[in-house]
Amino acid sequence: MDLSSVADQLDDEAADTRDVAAPRDRRSPSDADPLWWRSAAIYQIYPRSFADGNGDGVGDLAGVRHRLGYLKDLGVDAIWFTPWYPSPLADGGYDVADYTSIDPRFGTLEEAEALIQEALALGIRTIVDIVPNHISDQHPWFRAALAAGPGSPERDRFWFHPGKGPDGSEMPTGWESSFSGPTWTRTTNPDGTPGEWYLHLFTPQQPDLNWNHPDVRRMHEDVLRFWFDRGVGGVRIDSAALLVKDDTLPEVPENPQPGGHPTQDRDELHEIYRRWRAIADSYPGARILVGEIWLPDIHRFAKYLRNDELHTAFNFDFLARPWDAAELRASIDRTLAAHAPVDAPSTWVLSNHDVTRPVTRYGREDTSFAFAAKRAGTPTDLALGTRRARAAALLTAALPGALYIYQGDELGLPEVEDIPEDRLEDPMHFRSGGTDPGRDGCRVPLPWSGSRPPFGFSPPGAARPPWLPQPAAWSSLTVQAQDGDPSSTLWLYRDALRVRKALNGAPDTGFSWRSLGDGVLAFERGPEFLSITNLSEHDVELPDNAGILLASAPLRGGRLPPDSTAWLRTRRLPSRLRV
Ligand code: NOJ
Prior knowledge:
Oligo-1,6-glucosidase, domain 2, 8-stranded parallel β-sheet, binds 1-deoxynojirimycin
């Protein structure tokens, strides 16, 4: 497929009513395509909230299998599941009690195996989430460690330590949790006296594993093989830069030197990922390792992407930037420059299950993202936010590298900011003493059809309502409502992914900026494709020899209005646009 045939298809479709599913790309993944991950569009499924097959109000694998056609029509190359393992759900499943089976609320291992194969038959690879930094306190290892007591080999798999002070009542370190509150919890000895402390960088229900212990390494290597044996195309590695700790337990220095933080980005991590890469590479085709790595230093970040370590990692720098041309351009430049020396593709991520939905964020006065400042309750203009989120979707989809789409962003869902307190579940909220709104607002079950909750999320006659309440206003955002509307955000995503696939499949699709004035991000991908995002306050004139492939908003008198993106097919750029 080339860009001109895509352009023709888009024209044809614009003329019809678009009430049919998008044409299917019948390519199926094959081991002969070792580079699929470099430009893949990867859709993140939060299984509790995607689709409920059995009517218990919680999403499940039956629901996902039923909706695989939707994902195929959307045009994604892979799906990444946040943890689907048995879990007490102290942190939405990132407290894993068993890494090699499926939580019964979601289904069975056989269903997961069937899902992986059914998705593959549609050309969609599956990526599973591996959580190596910590484990559930209900995992047999941790229960055995508590029972075995101080000094036992069972405790060596974790970070058990005596407390400081004469009676051991002070925590071994003052390390801070990214979930607010302490990182150590004191145990009680079998005789009822206060005992040792154990480390948990997140909640007390997520004790950190000791990566100096061979059992811990072996277990995770086995877990990788377990899922690769079942045909998954890759793993997403949770908290990938946190696994190794300085075992002398120093306090965090005021300005840690690179690699000098006691719990983050320690040099020993690279050896672990080299071993993991060797395991991934021992399987046919490309089985990929994707790191969840939040690091301020992008050069340290890029070190994880050397060609014998991780394949890619999430680019959170871009996600955190405000809606500002100079900031976004600087982030794009920084990202591309840091990835080039290690020859790794960038990833482009607008949101995920941890951050405020773009529609809500981009409608605020301060459009940047930071965990410490989610700005819940500050006014947001959802119409403006939606406009910008659509523009951002095209901007990121046009950039070179892999693209991540968080479920529901393709529907333009906003953050739900009025979930009743007694329905909230996120530990970030509770551990902050209620000052942090938490992450439930971006995890509300998807609206599929109909005019009232559960909006087709659960089957008719479901026994229970969705586990988080859906806003009544979502009736206009359902898949069904958007499927019949050619100007919907869902169709924008479908069209964008199709053009993007043709673009990335074309030869010579480099990247170069074009100058179209202040507040405008314009870049070429090869000689035929130009993406223009207007972040200024004025309409922008478009090059006159270019045909519009796609636009996130209607043009005004042939000009691109503020807060929108257009994709153009250019045969030859006019000289005034050349730099
Ligand atoms: C990152 C995950 O995305 C987040 O949801 C989780 O709470 C933490 N890691 C801890 O596992």
